[in-house]
Amino acid sequence: MSFGPGVIIRSHSGVLTQARGFVLERDRIMKIGIINEQDILNKAAQALNTEENPFTAEVVNGRLVVSWRWKDAVTFGFGTVTKDVQDFRYVVVLGENHTFYGYDSRDSLIMDADIRGSAGVQMSSFTGHEVRLRKEIAIGKNKGEKNAGIREWNFSTKRIHEPVRQFFEENGWRYKEPSVTWVETSNKKLYKCLGLLFGSIGLILSLVFFLEGVIPMLCMGAVFLLAAVWTFLVGLGKAKLPVFSMKAILIFMAAFFAGVYGLIFLVLFIYLKVMGG
């Protein structure tokens, strides 16, 4: 490397790579400047709330919440009427050293009725990480529409993940996902109902096993009671749900299947030894 007549610097490629990495990191830090967390969140909400994006972004409790109600419609089938509401949220949390990570939250509400007079309600909630691509076509009408017709609804997690991550990365923040994140549920009513359901099952099992004298099986009832208490506390907002990263999930699944197959082979090995002996 030459800087002029008689000035030559000989450097190892590894040193140059390290220096180049230092310059990139320095430029990233200089780009961030003195912007604090609240400023970058407000800036993100302002930048993402455009007509081109189907979602809305707002800052809630020090986090960026990007919400997309991609379906709110009434559809008509063969003798059935269905009200379908689908909500999806991407929550961005800022970490240390100018890093960020995000997790998904999804709520679904489906109410249907038919000409026989029967009706039903389905509620579901999900918090974690997912990749989804969905397309629906049906006869119906969206909320606010007067006339019904053939309607189409499209949803993709990529549509909401990419612009959000791109904004933070362009502003000098790096995506770094922790192994476990503890979050509050967005559907507290559902977890309150689940808590009451688990509590009822736990009480019934405990009573039956106690009356039958099967004391060791009382632990099953105790497990349901503990699950009931924790689930009900989640519904009250006093407890949080664990959200595992994809890396942690893959490691757990690999360890689980390795343990199961290892146990099976161990049992077969002992069985063959005993039968062969």
Radius of gyration: 27 Å
Main beta sheet: strand number and arrangement?
8 strands, mixed
How far apart lie the N and C ends?
75 Å
Note the overall shape. globular
Tell me the β content.
Answer: 25-35%
The count of helical stretches stands at 6
Helix content: 40-55%
SSE string, helices as H and strands as E: EEHHEEEEEEEHEEHHEH
Mean of all residue-level pLDDT scores: 79
Poorly predicted runs of 5 or more residues: 1-17
Structural class: alpha+beta
Number of strands: 12
Tag the structure with descriptive keywords.
globular, alpha+beta, 34% strand, 277 residues, eight-stranded mixed beta sheet
Report on this structure.
This protein is of the alpha+beta class and 277 residues long. The chain is built from 6 helices and 12 strands. The protein has helices spanning 13-32, 37-48, 157-170, 188-212, 218-236, 246-276, and strands at residues 2-4, 7-8, 56-60, 63-76, 80-94, 99-114, 119-128, 133-142, 149-156, 174-175, 180-183, 241-244. Strands 3, 4, 5, 6, 7, 8, 9 and 10 form an 8-stranded mixed sheet that branches. Helix 2 crosses helix 3 (157-170). The protein is globular. The termini are far apart.
